[in-house]
Amino acid sequence: MASHCNRQYFLNPRLSLQLLALVGTFFVTIVTESAASIQLRGEVGGNVTFSCPTAKPNLKFLYFQRVEIFVNGYYQSKTASEIAELAWKNTIMDHDKTTMHMYNLNVSHHGEYQCLFQYTDSSATQKQVIHLNLTANYSKPAPTVHCSDENHRFSCLVTCASHDGYPVDKVTWNVPGSQMWTVLNSSEMNDPKTMMVNISSTAYFNCSNGNTSISCSVGNVSSDVFSVCAPIENPPVPHCPMIEAICAVVGITFTMLVLLLWWRCKKGQRGAAAVDFRRVNGCEEGNSPH
Ligand SMILES: *[C@@H]1O[C@H](CO)[C@@H](O)[C@H](O)[C@H]1NC(C)=O
Ligand SMILES: *[C@@H]1O[C@H](CO)[C@@H](O)[C@H](O)[C@H]1NC(C)=O
Ligand SMILES: *[C@@H]1O[C@H](CO)[C@@H](O)[C@H](O)[C@H]1NC(C)=O
Ligand SMILES: *[C@@H]1O[C@H](CO)[C@@H](O)[C@H](O)[C@H]1NC(C)=O
Ligand SMILES: *[C@@H]1O[C@H](CO)[C@@H](O)[C@H](O)[C@H]1NC(C)=O
């Protein structure tokens, strides 16, 4: 195997004393590092499985660490509950002693890990580097269009925004070549807690070439196609559920009133004692059969 032996001394000042006690040795140990690192992919909110390749089953210990901080592992001399006290709560070691499951991934879990292990018949420690690459899908980009017609120079400012993605990405614009336009600015905002990223881009459109259909994208996700520079005297009717609801209620009430009046008139025409009622309701006297 093409495993080149990168000899280095393994003594981590930040490694907790409990961990050294678990390993059962305070001596400086020689570490043999495997040449190829393992690349893992995960999604924020999802799970990932770390596997540390070992050649033999007789393990003295095998553990995963993150920048010298213990994550989880197996020690021949320790019980699972002793180890669980020190382990990350979002991890579980598999019964095979070489596999670790990590749950509820968030951006802070992105980065480099190491697996360190020793066989019972050797005091040499072996190391395997593992990279965890996390991604989160950006939301479908949402456009907002603001047009103005100052001094008959018609122009529009369009902003496309997409949120809660990882890592940083860019908004791209899909605009036909005939349009006169330019990107004014773009922004990236990290949520300080979740480290997820919101991005946006604002573009200026000179509308002298008229109405165009455009869209914007982030990665493989595109916005709906929308139009810029539509004639300003014809602004699109905003979709407002509240207004639609009010219209519906007014419409139904009006229809019911008309039906009620019509029904009363009809009834009045048939009923003998309906003359006064007809007058009140404005039914034509001429319609009366009397
Ligand atoms: C993110 O996007 C990829 C590729 O389009 C898709 O396979 C995956 O299911 C998406 N993840 C989530 C959490 O929606
Ligand atoms: C748009 O471009 C035309 C031609 O280049 C120019 O005359 C006009 O002033 C521009 N309009 C705006 C709003 O910049
Ligand atoms: C980008 O430019 C537009 C127009 O000048 C402005 O309204 C907006 O606040 C700017 N956005 C950022 C993130 O600077
Ligand atoms: C990112 O966008 C989401 C949804 O619009 C919002 O709730 C959140 O506060 C934004 N975060 C930042 C850092 O702007
Ligand atoms: C976008 O799609 C291409 C192929 O359609 C795929 O190879 C690539 O991984 C996708 N990118 C993302 C960010 O989903």
Question: What does this protein look like?
Answer:
It is a single chain. The chain is α+β, with helices and mostly antiparallel strands and 290 residues long. It has three domains: 2-135, Immunoglobulins (Immunoglobulin-like), CATH 2.60.40; 142-228, Immunoglobulins (Immunoglobulin-like, Sandwich); 239-271. The protein is built from four helices and 18 strands. It has helices at residues 17-23, 80-86, 241-270, 275-281; strands at 8-10, 29-33, 38-43, 48-51, 59-66, 69-75, 91-93, 99-102, 111-119, 125-135, 142-150, 153-165, 171-174, 180-190, 197-206, 212-218, 221-222, 226-228. The strands form four sheets. Strands 1, 2, 3, 5, 6, 9 and 10 form a seven-stranded mixed beta sheet that branches. Strands 11-12-15-14 form a four-stranded antiparallel beta sheet, with no helix packed on it. Strands 13, 16, 17 and 18 form a four-stranded antiparallel beta sheet that branches. The protein starts with 7 loop residues before the first strand and ends in a 9-residue tail after the last helix. Residues 1-18 and 282-290 have low confidence and may be disordered. Residues 163, 189, 191, 198 line the site of one 2-acetamido-2-deoxy-beta-D-glucopyranose (NAG).
Secondary structure blueprint with pairings:
Blueprint: E1 8-10, H1 17-23, E2 29-33, E3 38-43, E4 48-51, E5 59-66, E6 69-75, H2 80-86, E7 91-93, E8 99-102, E9 111-119, E10 125-135, E11 142-150, E12 153-165, E13 171-174, E14 180-190, E15 197-206, E16 212-218, E17 221-222, E18 226-228, H3 241-270, H4 275-281
Parallel strand pairs: 2-10, 3-10
Antiparallel strand pairs: 1-2, 4-8, 5-6, 5-9, 7-8, 9-10, 11-12, 12-15, 13-16, 14-15, 16-17, 16-18
Helix pairs in contact: 3-4
